[in-house]
Write a structure and sequence with these properties.
The protein contains no helices and eleven strands. The protein is an all-beta fold. The strands form two sheets. Strands 2, 4, 5, 6, 9, 10 and 11 form a seven-stranded mixed β-sheet that branches.
């Protein structure tokens, strides 16, 4: 069972990045999927969540209007489109999969936004 994030990197303030989270060893179609982030010296925080069908999404206030979470169950992959990035978005971004029986995490991908 594995979640592998990709797409992080260094971007200037106002730029965009698209993160991907590819699952293997299990099928995400029965899991609520989320993106979290953890900045240095801070606790991990929830950024966005998407329901099993993709019909419902939720975002932390700081990412509303700038980030979009989506999923492609056929590709077993979840995405996070991040626009209008700010230096305070700098963090390691993790994806997570959760249902009533299991809880999986990826290893994270670094996002750095320069001012």
């Amino acid at each position: 069972v594995q979640l592998v994030e990709s797409g992080g990197g260094l971007v200037q303030s106002g730029g965009s990045l698209r993160l991907s989270c590819a699952a293997s060893g299990f099928t995400i179609s029965t899991y609520t999927m989320s993106w979290y982030r953890q900045a240095p010296g801070k606790e991990r925080e929830l950024v966005a969540t998407i329901s099993i069908t993709g019909a419902r999404t939720n975002y932390v206030d700081s990412s509303k209007g700038r980030f979009t979470i989506s999923r492609d169950n056929a590709k077993n992959t979840v995405y996070l489109q991040m626009n209008s990035l700010k230096p305070e978005d700098t963090a390691v971004y993790y994806c997570g999969a959760r249902n009533a029986w299991s809880d999986y995490w990826g290893q994270g991908t670094q996002v750095t936004v320069s001012s």
